[in-house]
Amino acid sequence: MENIYSNIYSFNKKTLKQTVKSLKQGNIAGLPTETVYGLAGNAYSKKAVIKIFKLKNRPKINPLIIHYHKLSKINKDVNVNKNFFKLYKKFCPGPLTFVLKKKKDSKIVSLATANLDTVAVRFPKHKVIRSILKFIDFPLAMPSANLSSSLSPVNAFDVFEDFGNKIKTIINGGSSKFGIESTVIDLTGKPKILRPGIISEKQIKRVLNTNLVFKKNKIRSPGMLKKHYSPGIPVIIGRKPIDHKYAYIVFGKKYKNNKNYFNLSKKGNLKEAAANLYKTMRKIKKKGYKKIFVSKIPNRGPGLAMNDRLKRASN
Ligand code: TXA
Ligand code: MG
């Protein structure tokens, strides 16, 4: 039988070399990170950045996160500050994205940052993306590897589901550890959380020693305002379905093992639940359910990020 996943590769010296070469040529690759899989291209190449927007069908007003190997690489592109250094020291590489002022002579393609005067910078931790970043002399523009407004991918086959053979390379780096996108924090002024994620507001507050602004309605990030993270079927939150023909996403040990119940974490562990959220929604859709109901999920730690995504999915 023919292998339909002919563009999914395991990670080794040979595929690392091929991926690096392909990115240098301006091609796009589906790559694993510790949060979700990304659609990566050279952030200094207009050709590559245009390809990313086209592939995702992403509105041009929604800027991309730019990914770097290490600190010394960002000086050409952004202005850093004290708060940035504090958070970098504590959480990087890891699931935290910083919005910083863009330098005038930065080579980052302006479409990548939606013509804003800021850049979202991230240092991912997954060993595959880190090895690749080490061998290239440009940063990677890398949004989540899904079609605009649908669910983020947490493994190589999820990426294939949305893009098939439209991209040359997808590297299989296993299931994403966190399964939910990075926290985005704006550090251009008073620290402001633009997108909740695995690194919580509390953890950030502890490091910065200051209160954070977290205004849900007044967000700078245009992508945050729209319907997003949608599985493609209606999502109803905080309610139990009246009929077994609808899927019910639950959390914690008090729930039965009904066929239409999908428990994100029987142990009631929010980190485990976050890692299972997108995976579970995809599974439910594949099983043919027409609606998803979701029980209440505690609004703390990773639960905050989950509730944020669920709310958007239910819009
Ligand atoms: O975990 C993640 O962050 C993943 C992995 C692949 O790194 N990436 C990701 O990218 O989630 P994306 O494009 O799906 O989401 C990026 C978010 C969007 O909400 C976008 O609006 C915001 O970051 N963003 C990017 N640049 C920004 C900027 N200059 N100012 C404000 N928000 C920005
Ligand atoms: Mg996304």
Provide a brief overview of the structure:
The protein is of the alpha/beta class and 315 residues long. It has helices spanning 13-24, 46-56, 82-91, 127-134, 156-163, 201-208, 270-286, 302-313; strands at 8-10, 29-31, 38-42, 65-67, 78-79, 96-102, 118-122, 140-141, 169-172, 183-186, 192-195, 235-237, 247-250, 261-263, 292-294.
Question: How does this model look, in words?
Answer:
By secondary structure, the chain is of the alpha/beta class. It folds into two domains: 8-214, DHBP synthase; 235-314, Threonylcarbamoyl-AMP synthase, C-terminal domain (Rossmann fold), CATH 3.40.50.11030. The chain has helices at 13-24, 46-56, 82-91, 127-134, 156-163, 201-208, 270-286, 302-313, and strands at 8-10, 29-31, 38-42, 65-67, 78-79, 96-102, 118-122, 140-141, 169-172, 183-186, 192-195, 235-237, 247-250, 261-263, 292-294. The strands form two sheets. Strands 1, 2, 3, 4, 5, 6, 7, 8, 9, 10 and 11 form an eleven-stranded mixed sheet that branches. Strands 12-15-13-14 form a four-stranded parallel sheet, covered by helices on one side. The longest helix has 17 residues, at 270-286. It is globular. It starts with 7 loop residues before the first strand and ends with a helix. The model has no long low-confidence stretch (mean pLDDT 94). Magnesium ion binds next to loops.
